[in-house]
Amino acid sequence: MGNTGNRLVVVGQIENARGSSGADWIDGSELNNRILGEGGNDTLNGDAGNDVIYGGTGADSMSGSYGADRLFGEGGNDTISGGDDSDTISGGAGADSLSGGANLTDWVSYAGSDAAVNVTFTFGTTTTGRGGHAAGDQLNGFNNILGSDFGDQLRDSVEGAVGGNYNANIFDGAGGNDDLFMGGANDTAYGGMGFDYIAGQNGNDRLFGGGNGDRIYGGAGADFMVGGEGNDMLFANEDNDRLFGGVGDDVLHGAAGRDRLQGDAGADRFIFLKADESTVLSTGRDVIVDFNRAEGDRIGLAQIDANGAADGFGSFTFVTVFTGQAGQLRVADTADGQRVLADLNGDRISDFAIDVLGNGRPMLIESDFNL
């Protein structure tokens, strides 16, 4: 095309089009188009097909229409809308107006940002971004976001009922030390590389730390948490959570509900803060999947008051059988491993229990615990 601005409609078997330095108007076809706006304030529209559109410099207007499109505003204050299907939109530099589709499966991407971004989604209203390429951006209709290579803050402000899925998000922090705060639906978070902080809220969330040492908090709902590489800290909360530490010396905290704790490789710590975090009843009894003495694993009970309702803070005494003294801890064989039992009040009845899986595993001894 020339350099003064043109109108081009892509038809037939033509797939690709390149604009000029002027203000071009290019409409795609039903094929998978690749459209380059180049310079000027361009109007670039995909059609059917999975299109890739680059605005170039200038304040461009871009639309994906049908198909799973990828739209890159690049320079300038662009206006970009995804249309139908699952699109990925990157405004680039400039204060952009970015709109996802009605299906709420579109992604806004800040992978190319030159600094950390700060974005808080507010369902049903316009979000104003801050920092890096997000500065001044106006976002509508997105549930999913890809962060930059820097320390981003990504947040969903909506907290719905547990198990609701009206606003399910996928957050990917990418590189950097990110803070990811999920919302009220069944969300998915990926910390990526870096020392990340990830917090679920209501909903049955899937939270993945990635590389380095991450801190992951489940929130309400039955959550699945994976630390990945590095020395991670994983915190269960309400409901029946599943915690997987991954490679590294991880710390896994049980909580209310029947949680499943798996440290994987490394010297892991399985920590309990209160006696009611793992109950005698199976519905609330936590399970340690892969305790390994040779790797340096320990079960941490030192923060539980072994005196129960009595005055003062007491520590557990490891015994072979309960003898009627408060604060005793013993281990019993089960069909699929061993069970840690604690008597808090001296009535010879267990008040606290943890299942440790593994037939043929050496019997737990006092040094396996931090009491």
TrEMBL record:
- Where does the protein principally reside? secreted
Q: Where in the cell is it found?
A: Secreted
Matching InterPro entries:
Hemolysin-typ_Ca-bd_CS, Hemolysn_Ca-bd, RTX_toxin/Mannuronan_C5-epim, Serralysin-like_metalloprot_C
Query: What is the protein named?
Result: Calcium-binding protein
**What are the protein's UniProt keywords?**
Secreted
Recorded GO terms, molecular function?
calcium ion binding
What's a single GO CC term here? extracellular region
The answer to whether keyword RNA-binding applies is no
